[in-house]
Target: Glucose-6-phosphate isomerase
Amino acid sequence: MTQIWNRLQDHRKAQGDRRIESLFDADRATDYRVQADGLTFDYSKTMIDADARNLLLDLVGPVAARRDAMFAGERINETEGRAVLHTALRNLSGSVTVDGQDVMPAVRDTHARMSDFARRVRDGGFSGQGGRITDVVNIGIGGSDLGPAMAVLALAPFHDGPRTHFVSNVDGADIADTLKGLDPATTLVIVASKTFTTIETMTNAQTARDWMAKAVADPGAQFVALSSAKGKAAEFGIDEARVFGFEDWVGGRYSVWGPIGLSLMLAVGPDAFDEFLAGGAAMDAHFRTAEPAQNLAVMLALTGIWHHQICGYPTRAVLPYDNRLMRLPAYLQQLEMESNGKRVAMDGSDLPVVSGPVVWGEPGTNGQHAFYQLIHQGTMPVPCEFILAARGHEADLAHHHILLAANCLAQSEALMRGRSLDEARALMADKGLTGAELERQARHRVFPGNRPSTTLLIDQLTPFTLGQIVALYEHRVFVEGVILGINSFDQWGVELGKELALQVEPLLKGEDAPGHDASTEALAALIRGMRG
Ligand SMILES: O=P(O)(O)OC[C@H]1O[C@](O)(CO)[C@@H](O)[C@@H]1O
Model:
């Protein structure tokens, strides 16, 4: 493996300042893309050439065995001793054994219970103490929030169920703003927490319960729990008929496919939710069977590795040209950074290369008027991953969609092509400038270009295609993780801050709390003073 990394680095150096445009021959636009199941991933506007691609493909040796182990239910999350089977939540007709036991009957049973409950809420068979459920509040954080929150927004054209709200932050402002204006008697509260111990979620859940208790006789009757810790949900006072459980082999950031997706199911209905699952399952089938060079997840992963580990670009921008995908960058931040932001390999040794990149983004065209300046003219290239649907949902606003798509394509073209000093000089000469002033002004208008981007093109954003996209990114993270030798399924890096927060809390209350550094103590004293 080290040899391949070295050869890739050497190859990159040998490319020198060659330009992406110079790689284009008659076939590059079709050779450097992958098409499968209606999705196109175009990576032709990158510096990946034939040699780079061959070397990158040499990295995927260990992926197939690890992938098969994952789908077979082996405990590939070795630091937590768990299987990794979120894929089982969307392949309902299959059979998977963990420790000799088929896990699928329980998965199917929970899915059927969820669907039945969602139907009853949607048709009024299950109602609140003041009548039909009008609003659903999902209380969760991280993977228990980002997936359904992202997907509910993405599938707005299919949303025909109760209004859906999401509360995640322990900042009381979040729940206060959300509950304001809601009627407790017609609101259903979902407490979504795999562990049912997360301090933010449990604090918000208690606040919601107090709010509900002021208005209805039996507040617990309008609560639902989604959790792996069914006992803890019962302790909170939620009837087991409204507890939808899942096993520890579903990681938080991979959990939207099962009970954690209940708010999505309530919003769009069980049939559309099943379409979402079918899209994910279709991507699983593609990932398991397509050759590496024709495999969407593999090539998306290799492009990421090329840009981050080989070219050394520290961040990756995800730029959906689809307003309804506005939460996808935040969703991918958790998926990618919590999964592959690790400094040691599975065996405990230091990683031989850097870990995963910083992932960020905003929908186009908004970002164009905010941070694209840096992307085009800053000193550090930012690989951009554009996502675009060929068709919008607003048939009467098709001209908007053409403009949206034109902007998306124009940005990737501009990033690659840039504008030379001579072109900038000609522009300034046209404006009547001459001499030193022409030169000065022209330099500000130069776009270096040669900045890489990829485009993921889909037909239209639907439950099915959203399922494909989410599963595609999951598998991309998986492939990158296997190549880096990382365990993509644990998250020990979030623990220390959580532990210290518990120890800082007494400091803020003015209680005895030894062991803190001078800066933390001084800041806490200031806060205490300001609070009076
Ligand atoms: O669903 P839970 O157990 O409340 O956890 C929420 C989130 O917290 C984390 O454990 C990180 O703190 C995430 O991995 C997870 O998605």
